[in-house]
Amino acid sequence: MIMRRRTRDQLDSLALEIRSCRRCPLSKDRTKAVPGEGPEWAEILLVGEAPGRDENLAGRPFVGRAGSVLDRCLEEAGIDRSRIFITNAVKCRPPNNRRPKNDEVEACRPYLEAQIELVQPKVVILMGNAATKAVLDLEGVTSLRGRLFKEIYLVTFHPAAVLRNGNLREVFISDLLAAKDKVDGRWPPARDEDYSD
Ligand code: SF4
């Protein structure tokens, strides 16, 4: 219990630091930085790309249209959003929702690494190319999705991609279910032969 409280305090301190961070140019145009949110004991940690317009205003991750898609898919997969930790590769909104630049991702990476280190989830779901590049230095989500790296990182599509292309929805939910299987110690998931290390 004491350990958990200490981890919570460290996550909260990190969030405070992120909210006043000026390490990269994205700090100039942000309204609110979005550190991420979730319990310190979360077994699943989700990583997206960057805050969008709604997140920039609210200071919370995935509260816009892509967030609605994420919420519905989580619900369908039987995952309670309040029990997972959700964050992004960069914590401040890039202008016009452009993809974050490499130096911005680099500047922000220590925050993401610290969050993963503190939460110690059983699976980290990397949603989309930016998150996958930031953590694994790999690109090409279409070919990487459904694969587990370093026994903890599961690659899948970003909810915004699911919003644009409804055909990805089933695959995205399948990957969320696979993450649940990983949490329960079942990998590769028995119900789908396509999942492998
Ligand atoms: S994106 Fe990350 S590194 Fe850049 S200012 Fe925001 S919190 Fe700091």
From TrEMBL:
Query: Keywords in UniProt for this one?
Result: 4Fe-4S, DNA damage, DNA repair, Hydrolase, Iron, Iron-sulfur, Metal-binding
Q: Where is the Uracil-DNA glycosylase-like domain?
A: 35-177
Which family is it part of?
Answer: Belongs to the uracil-DNA glycosylase (UDG) superfamily. Type 4 (UDGa) family.
Show the InterPro entries listed in the entry. UDG_Type-4/5, Ura-DNA_glyco_family4, Uracil-DNA_glycosylase-like, Uracil-DNA_glycosylase-like_sf
| UniProt keyword annotation of DNA repair present | yes
EC class (word): hydrolase
Q: What is this protein called?
A: Type-4 uracil-DNA glycosylase
Q: What is its EC number?
A: 3.2.2.27
Q: Does the keyword DNA damage apply?
A: yes
The processes (GO biological process) annotated in the record are: DNA repair
SMART domains linked to this entry: UDG (SM00986), UreE_C (SM00987)
| GO MF term (any one) | metal ion binding
A Pfam family that this protein carries is: UDG
